[in-house]
Write the structure tokens for this entry.
Amino acid sequence: MNSYQQITINKPCSFEGVTLHSGEYSKITLHPSPANTGIKFKRIDSKLPKGQNIIPANFKNIRSSQLCTTIENDYNLSVSTIEHLMAALHSFGIDNLLIDIDSSEMPILDGSSIEFTNAFSKIGLKELKAKKRYLKILKNVEVKRDNAYVRIKPSDELSINYTIDYPNTIVGKQNIFLENINAATFSNNLAECRTFTFESELDNLRSNGIIKGGSLDNALVFGNKKTLNQEGLRTINEPAKHKALDAVGDLFLAGNCVMAHIEASCAGHSLMHAALHEIFSDPSNWKIITLSEKTDYTILSGELSVSTANL
């Protein structure tokens, strides 16, 4: 599958299970969608008129939420914990999809993206008769909060350098650097990495009414000296890799696959959301482009095809 044409999935696929935060049961069905329709969620449980139950996956629809990414439309209809699916879609380059969902939260599955990537690999992808659009970062963009930061830098591919630091815990300081994030690199390095927390935080999280559906089946929980999960880690630096997974998913709320290098330290969802808003605060930060077999890319806002070597 090349990177010139827009992509959807070959046929519908469904996933279901408990939700992490509300603890309810949720089912989603992913449907192939035509070119230039983007990624959209449809709340099939809503009684709102037709069209008002659609929530486009776009940074403009991000709503502040705890420990996950939530989007909401103009009719106060929302869907949360979308980041693991969005990460799989971004890395596989899936531009167009309609996602039926029967509740306000995505099923957490096993706490990673692996079930989504396995399904996409099994059912396959379909090229559409429309040029694929990329959001190419042209200037450095940075947001900071205390000791945390996100820097989005120009690049001809999607790459990430992510650092986490949990002092005085067995997680400690970890880093993941991954170049050329695509279906293969994501599946082999990030997809299986689970959301995580600490045993010492569980009571506080539950008292705040979140992680009602959390368990060792869908999260990695760290005690003082080891994980509470009998099987332990799936891969070295699994927590840092999961944070990178989340970042790839959140960045897809740009509305198109992104060409950029992400450099982040101790940053969660809210800082990634802030970085998205910072990107679009200045039109000179970005361009929408298409790739060409004859030239490196074409800027859609102009008529001149230019080589990235000249930037």
Observations:
- The chain has six helices and 21 strands.
- The chain has one domain: 5-299.
